[in-house]
Amino acid sequence: MSILVFAEHDNSTLKADTLKTVAAAQAIGGDIHLLVAGSNCQNVAQEAAKVNGVSKVIVADNAAYEHQLAENISLLVTELAGDYDHILATALTTGKNFMPRVAALLDVAQISDIIAVESADTFVRPIYAGNAIATVQSLDSKKIITVRPTGFDAVATDGNAEIISLDTVTDAGISAHVSDELSESERPDLGAAGVVISGGRGMQNGDNFKLLEGIADKLGAAIGASRAAVDAGFVPNDMQVGQTGKIVAPDLYIAVGISGAIQHLAGMKDSKIIVAINKDAEAPIFQVADYGIVADLFDVLPELEGKL
Amino acid sequence: MKVLVPIKRVIDYNVKVRVKADNSNVDLANVKMAINPFCEIAVEEAVRLKEAGTATEVIVVSIGDKSCQEQLRTALALGADRAIQIETDESLDALNIAKLLQKTVEEEQPQLVILGKQSIDSDNNQTGQMLAALTGMPQGTFASEVKVEGDKVNVTREVDSGLQTVALNLPAIVTTDLRLNEPRYAKLPNIMKAKRKPLEVKPAADFGIDLSPRSTLLKVTPPATRQAGIIVDSVDTLIEKLKNEAKVIS
After folding, report:
1. Which among A93, A126, A292 is the nearest to B160, CB-wise?
2. What's the pLDDT tens digit per position in A17-63?
3. Digit-coded pLDDT (tens) for A262-285
4. DSSP E strand boundaries for chain B
5. A210 Cβ under 8 Å from any chain B Cβ
6. What domains sit in chain B, N to C, each tagged with a CATH number?
7. Is A136 in Cβ contact with B216 (below 8 Å)?
């Protein structure tokens, strides 16, 4: 069997979550190729060649792929699909965007967001915001799969795969990139951080998120937020942790002023240790927390920062 | 221009679902159902486009048994002009849903199709993208802003790194994220009016599409439960526990 894995990157570095998707490919078993599609992305290709378990890196380096528009990437992947039994992408916004398009072009179903591999055609995935876990057997000849990174442990990066370049260019010509508004942060990625501290509606406003920063600095943590905090405009959308936002599973997750709606729990309840700080003792977040403090966060946060 | 909005009937977002004792699926008997929250945002966006004079007609479509007429009536009460129910008793996977919607797009010729980015039951996040592929249209997924300008639509998308804006040739597909708008509540006179709006029922079997399933659901189990934790009385105790018991900080 052969497996194509789509590499997540920003044209300069390979996203660490790709290493987890490769782990999922290894669990399926077969000859694994990584596809690096982008523009001026040779550095990514070099990094991809070091990923363990990968025998070949296919590089499609062209302006048409710079912003990874779904219309263009899906044509590229569909063109390569003939050689593969499985095609995998990470269940992040790029993969979620183009993969169903690939599946439909190939006339096969997609299995989204798998967290475990049972066999080459049977996969485990959460449904209903993680309140049920489904085991699904694909009946299609080709399997199109997105992988939830928190379900797999990253493979190492001391490999040495062959790199080949692709000259064909697939440009659908029906969409164009206009602009990006990227969040600049010195902190680790939410998905990759070992510690995450998140604020909810209880933070009251965006300024108060500064109270989380000092603690995040001391713990090397990423800062997240609940949907309520994002909807209220306290912080930008890319900080949202939850069913339809980012799914995280750090060693330590600190939920501050977050009540614990089903949709938020879906994004963090696989964390190793959960700490909840909330003044409402009845808040559902305490039902999943390993350690809880029932107190006003405006008292607890400065004390915690001072004592860490 | 015409706007088509496919919607789905799902479990109400406040209800915590339970798995059946025989692990065959989740138990939806006597559970409160509603229009999928992302679909509701899609309806709202289409109605706003009509109120702004950009859209001329808003058509809602749902695929399911007779019960989904309830959600279609809700969408009509929110301001959609007419509804189509594609009738089937089967629970179809996203690809087959997309194929039925493709036929509807061919018949209705909308300039814009707005869908929810995912349904909160199967959490697949596929239908809009698949419909885009089948119709050859460009897609603006996870939209937080939609601006129709001439023969293009500019869609601002919520992506992992922030926001990305793309320009799509019309006709196009848009899937909604949470921040696109805040849906209105249906007013009583509009709920009454919605009962008289046209609702056409079309059997899925008449579409001439092979709707056989592409996967088998082998089992559904409850997730692993977390052990109940403890309430600590002070920040000092918390830090001590995190250091010495959980060993997650040093």
Report:
1. A93
2. 999 999 999 999 999 999 999 999 999 999 999 999 999 999 999 99
3. 999 999 999 999 999 999 999 999
4. 2-7, 9-11, 18-19, 26-27, 33-35, 57-64, 82-87, 112-116, 139-149, 152-159, 162-169, 172-176, 199-203, 215-221, 230-231
5. no
6. 2-245 (3.40.50.620)
7. yes
